[in-house]
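Lab notebook, bench 4. The sequencing result for the construct came back, and we need a structural model before the next group meeting so we can plan mutations. Quick request posted to the team channel:

Model the 3D structure of this chain.
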Amino acid sequence: MAQAFHLKLITQRAGGGDPIVRERVVAGPEATIGRAAESDIVLADLSVDPQHARMRFTGPGRVSIESLSGLPLKVGGRSVQRADLSASGHAVVEIASYALALGPAEGEGVTVTVTREDDDPHLTPSVFSLQSKVFGRRKMAWTFGSAIFVICLLVPLFAAVWFSQNAMIHPDQQWSTGPLSKAHAFLETDCKSCHANAFVSVQDNACKSCHLAGHKEGPMSLARAQDKGSPFEPRLMADHAPKDRLSKGTPLPEALPARIGAVFQRAIGHPTDRCASCHIEHTKPTAKAVDANAPLSDKPTLVVVNDCESCHTSLKARLGDTELADTPDWGRHPAFKPLIMTAAGPTPQFQRVALSAGPQERNGLTFPHRMHLDRTGGVARQAIELGAGAGYGKPLECESCHEAKGAGFEPIQMEKACGTCHSLAYARGADGSLKLLPHGELQKVVDTLAGRTLSAPGGSNRMRPGTIRPTMFAATGASAYRATFSPGGTCYDCHTINWEGDVVKMAPVKLTQRYMPRGAFDHSIAEHGAIGKQGKAGAFKCADCHKAATSDRASDVLVPDLAKCATCHGQPTTRIAAADDADCTTCHAFHKPGDATPKPGHPPLETLRWTKVAAR
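Done. Here's the predicted structure in token form:
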């Protein structure tokens, strides 16, 4: 007879009596042993790996057994990784709670009898069991289930009926600490939107599903909130820092009890750096949470768990690779390093440069502020002569060109801010009317000078954007083309233009909208002074902070340094109206919303109602 393993699986009956014996044959030359269902010999024990061992014939009536998992096997009382055994020796191999006894079989086969030590009738588990001392599992389940039924249903129901006039317990509210705020009231019956897993605190992913900002995440967040039935358009927020770095950079509380509590909370998955740690829902609207008529709050209750100084005082000690300087107070605030454009082109490059280094920005313009703000120069005289009817009548000031819009300014428009003095006229038509060059696109200027609509050149003559060859023009157009982009020409006085042979290259114009991306200076507040034609009168004027009157180059970065801000901020006697405003959140917000506004607060809910439902 061919080599084969004759298996006998012996199982004791739960009620006693003769054991159950199952027999089957596994053809050689090997048999696998493990917890996995596909194993030839299945050992149902968590101490056994899915692929635990392998048994192989090595000759007539002889087998070898070896461990596949690295866990030792016990043969003859010794722990081994591999053993060669003879069926005639009646060897026993112990794996976890199982015993595999080998014996001879007909022909060249081997009998393998598998028993479990727990099934051994000679063992008396009752000696070690607590069953005689406590309830069995079935009785305990009924006992606890009945207790929950009585305490959580019958008692509240009885109290609600008995004390109907002055009920202190509401059965439908006993699991909640209070109602949701107005902002989240539409989720009152959809608990799983936030509480995704039972007995697990609300995780950040639940909050971010409706509030996460980003090019890809933002539209998805808004769509989810709308699908959930939100009557308000949620505010989208970006993380202050990556989650792992934020957790590592957050210090433990100083007090020992609070420190122990924080460590314990982190261990059980309830840390204090979650969204729901600061923005708390289900808070009691009044002293009596059962007051059904109590007004709901507009937003979740904000609780400050850690302030800015607690994390940034010794941040480098916890995050050694951080680029941020430790900032325990205003006196040790790092110097300003504005973000400026250092290389123009289709893909501009930006770099943070300290103001002390005298940074120069490549914005593509050659505009001199000094010339335009000189109160006795030619520009001032021309503004006076133009008169109030043209919007001037006096020497130019900053607000003559820079128009305020909320915390920032409207983009400069050449036709509106400069066109009165800097004409785009280049010729007269047959009827005597002026012909104007279009502004904003170099190719349109070239087409206008050529006097015809030009198709894009093809083949090897194709040019990169921003470069034009005069050979594209007729003879009369070429001279106008060169004059326009040469000294004294219409475009030359304001734009950065370079000639390479007969090729003109004009630097693209890119004006920085926010030099301090990690701050959020707000021109619109009264203490910062007048901000244009609709600005409010305040303590400062534009020239007090921005030294434009001494700048001869548009590349000058006219951002005030830290010392200028220190005249108000961080001083013992501050000029800021409210004392609680003079903190880090005056300029910095924990979250980084798209507009980077400081002290973000929460606008009235009425202003957040969906305004573009059809467009989403």
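Confidence is low (pLDDT under 50) at residues 120-128, 452-476, 532-536, 573-581.
Will bring this to the meeting.
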